[in-house]
Specification:
By secondary structure, this protein is α/β, with parallel strands linked by helices. It is built from 13 helices and 17 strands. It has 2 domains: 129 residues, Alpha-Beta Complex (Aspartate Aminotransferase, domain 1), CATH 3.90.1150.10; 242 residues, Type I PLP-dependent aspartate aminotransferase-like (Major domain) (Aspartate Aminotransferase, domain 2, 3-Layer(aba) Sandwich), CATH 3.40.640.10. Helices cover 38% and strands 18% of the residues. The strands form 4 sheets. Strands 4-12-11-10-7-5-6 form a 7-stranded mixed β-sheet, sandwiched between helices. It has a 4-stranded mixed β-sheet with strand order 1-2-3-15. The chain has a 4-stranded antiparallel β-sheet with strand order 13-14-17-16, with helices on one face. Bound molecules: pyridoxal-5'-phosphate (PLP). The site of pyridoxal-5'-phosphate has 15 residues, from helix 4.
Length: 392
């Protein structure tokens, strides 16, 4: 029996090495990785530039404290601001902490303006924002809230896609709207451009803040650096994590100056957040993602993966209900139980992820090639065919 908490239905599979799109077990068996540690390893495994940056930083200094100036963090923050709407960044170790910072910043913004009663945030069913007490309340998934005492107050939920339903929830206590431009964990649901534009307009109309959770869909996964760019809108606050560290724990909360200026000394903090090791890696990841052609490649591969998934849907109309997602955060809603299906794919040496609503989620590293996509889709097709054969 494992000495770890039983919080995961773990597979016995253990990997000892990774290279590019592949992971290897101790006996040398190779797996094609369309999971990326759940959207983290955007550069695949063992990226030479990132490994070099980590090793070099390990020889300089690992950790100081945020009471000192951390040049690697200053540089990464400046770079993030240069390529986004943001003017200020708070670094964290995880996505949930980035969301916690986003939620606190939104509440504090209104407190600072003499409107402390404005702390309600409108969030959405099917969303996922992390596993802290605050972020399970924000996510609102009953399965994740059960047994953990009263949920933190200050969140209202509605179904995504209906602007009138959102506006109906707005009252004098509403501070912000919080949404994933592409819901990941909940079922790989991409919000439409019109809907995201509509949410921005609603926020402007009611003096609310728009908070985007791009922890999973950001950092190039949709083929743009951030998913909201497709809609031509900007948020006031954005949480990112996962791919920004490429596998090293790193997250960030980004905000405009107008919003971030309420977060003065004493309002928030983190011992590790933005430490030299994490930010050295973050900068190396940024070098790679911002290099000419990188995002264009991710966009092209995303389109290709989407096309192949549509072909699968046509080939297996009884097993594939619909295709979902945007770019390289892609999915198919299937009729066979998705967790079993992910295990069947694993037996065939393909790593994928289950998402809510019985969706098979594909999150390959952004360095994925046409050949990798054809191989993965071939394996999924074989597994669907085997399922159809067994069922028939
Ligand atoms: C993974 C995820 C989080 C939580 O990130 P952790 O690093 O696990 O805390 C939050 N929001 C979204 C959209 C995510 O995909």
């Amino acid at each position: 029996m494992s000495a770890l908490f039983g919080t995961y239905a773990r597979s016995d599979l253990a990997f000892v090495r990774g290279e590019g799109m592949r992971l290897f077990t101790a006996d040398g068996t190779s797996y094609l990785d369309f999971n990326s540690g759940i959207g983290v390893n955007a550069l695949g495994h063992h990226d030479a530039h990132v490994v070099e940056a980590l090793k070099a930083q390990a020889d300089r200094v690992w950790h100081v404290s945020n009471i000192f100036t951390i040049p690697e963090a200053e540089r990464l923050a400046e770079r993030l601001c240069a390529v986004t709407f943001a003017d200020r960044v708070f670094f964290t170790n995880s996505g949930a902490e980035a969301l916690e910072c986003a939620i606190k910043t939104a509440r504090r913004f209104f407190f600072d303006r003499g409107e402390p009663e404005r702390y309600d945030i409108i969030a959405f069913s099917g969303s996922f924002h992390g596993r802290t007490l605050g972020t399970i309340a924000a996510g609102g998934n009953p399965a994740y809230l059960e047994g953990f005492g009263p949920p933190m107050p200050g969140f209202k939920h509605t179904r995504p896609g209906d602007l009138a339903a959102v506006e109906a929830l707005v009252d004098k206590n509403t501070a912000a709207i919080l949404i994933e431009p592409v819901q990941g964990e909940g079922g790989v649901t991409a919000m439409s451009t019109d809907y995201l534009k509509g949410l921005r307009t609603l926020c402007d109309k009611h003096g609310m803040l728009l908070i985007l959770d791009e922890v999973q869909c950001g950092m190039g996964r949709t083929g743009r650096l951030f998913a909201h760019e497709w809609a031509g809108i900007v948020p006031d606050i954005m949480a990112i994590a996962k791919a920004i560290g490429g596998g090293f724990p790193l997250g960030a909360c980004l905000a405009t100056e107008a919003v971030a200026k309420c977060m003065v000394p004493g309002t928030h903090g983190s011992t590790y957040g933005g430490n030299p090791m994490a930010c050295a890696v973050g900068n190396a990841v940024m070098d790679r993602v911002l290099a000419p052609g990188f995002l264009e490649h991710a966009e092209e591969m995303g389109r290709l993966l989407g096309w192949h998934l549509q072909q699968l849907a046509q080939r297996f109309p009884d097993l594939v209900v619909e295709t979902r997602g945007k770019g390289l955060i892609a999915g198919i809603k299937i009729t066979p139980p998705v967790r079993d299906f992910v295990a069947r794919l694993r037996d065939r040496r393909l790593l994928a992820v289950a998402a809510g609503d019985n969706v098979l989620r594909l999150l390959p590293p952004l360095i994925v090639t046409e050949k990798d996509i054809e191989e993965a889709v071939g394996i999924i097709g074989d597994a669907l065919e085997a399922h159809a054969g067994n069922a028939g």
